[in-house]
Amino acid sequence: MNLILLGAPGAGKGTQAKMIAQRYHLPHISTGDIFRENIRKETEIGLLAKSYIDKGQLVPDEVTCAIVKDRLTWDDCKNGCLLDGFPRNLYQAEELDKFAKIDGVVNINIDFKLLMDRLCGRRVCKECGESYHVSTLNGQTTCHCGGELYQRKDDNPETVKSRLDVYSAQTAPLIDYYTKKGVILNFTGTEAPAEVLFEEVKKVLDEKFGK
Ligand code: AP5
Ligand code: MG
After folding, report:
1. Which atom in ligand 1 lies closest to the alpha carbon of residue 155?
2. What is the mean pLDDT of each run of 10 residues along the chain (211 residues)?
3. Which residues surround ligand 2, an ion (CB under 5 A)?
4. Separation CA 186–CA 170 (nearest Å)
5. Which atom of ligand 1 is nearest to the CA of 133?
6. How far apart are alpha carbons 24 and 103 in whole angstroms?
């Protein structure tokens, strides 16, 4: 099955994706992670992506769509995949329809008031990608795996604001797009731990697609 995770920045797409990918044996494909890996390796795509990501803008569609189209041809996608952060506008959604059939869209609706603190307080492990919030770290600077924690460059108030604006203007219309296609699965993100939301997601996905 091919699934999409939809939601505003900080809604918990990446957090849910890890749990969904593990349970349903799907490769987790995050365009944000792919771009950050390219930035780290200083590739041509990385250099280009950085100029957009640092401003909270979308990386151009041609680049993003080509990356995903290629990624879906890999062997690990033959039984499906979990797309996190793609598509992000109507153009990308229409392009995706040309090379993949989407079975379900896990849409996490969340009050924007929760997001600024979540994102500006987020610290991520350089090694395993685990996320933490500064309020729970008590000065700790390393992950349980020993990796160093860092703050994403786009997790600052000004860039978060522009990411949220981009979400509202360009990505939120996809809720309607996938509702009309009959594949949307709506959830509400809250202050409850991520595992609570995952229990709900799991129940719906199990019922719809089997384990
Ligand atoms: P991307 O990396 O996709 O970032 P994003 O959409 O802004 O979302 P985040 O990764 O910040 O949040 P998330 O929803 O994954 O939440 P998380 O699980 O980490 O994209 C970055 C940039 O790349 C874009 O701005 C754009 O420039 C570019 N890009 C990417 N895709 C693109 C595309 N298709 N087209 C063009 N450009 C593209 O959770 C957030 C925090 O909250 C974490 O600390 C987590 O631990 C915590 N948390 C999660 N759940 C809970 C909970 N229930 N309670 C409390 N805390 C929680
Ligand atoms: Mg993410």
Report:
1. 11
2. 98 97 98 97 98 98 98 97 98 98 98 97 94 94 97 97 98 98 97 96 96 75
3. 13-14
4. 18
5. 44
6. 13
